[in-house]
Design brief:
mainly alpha, elongated, 68 residues, single chain, 2 helices
Length: 68
């Protein structure tokens, strides 16, 4: 499950940076506070990457022969 969370977080980071900031295609919640919503989306992506990495790392340390 760790790598799934990492992939989801990386997708959110890439999509958030490209679509929300560089191309301004759409925003998480348009309006006067859209920057904060977009930054929160990026923060959630970073949290998913960090949490997934920690989960995968913990799993690999618990059973080094099974982790790939």
């Amino acid at each position: 499950w760790g790598w799934i969370l990492v992939g989801w977080g990386v997708f959110n980071l890439v999509e958030g940076i490209i679509d929300h900031h560089l191309l301004a295609i759409h925003h998480v919640r348009p309006g006067p506070q859209q920057l904060w919503w977009d930054l929160g989306f990026l923060a959630s992506g970073a949290a998913l990457v960090a949490g997934g990495w920690l989960l995968q790392r913990r799993s690999a340390l618990a059973s080094p022969g099974d982790a790939r």
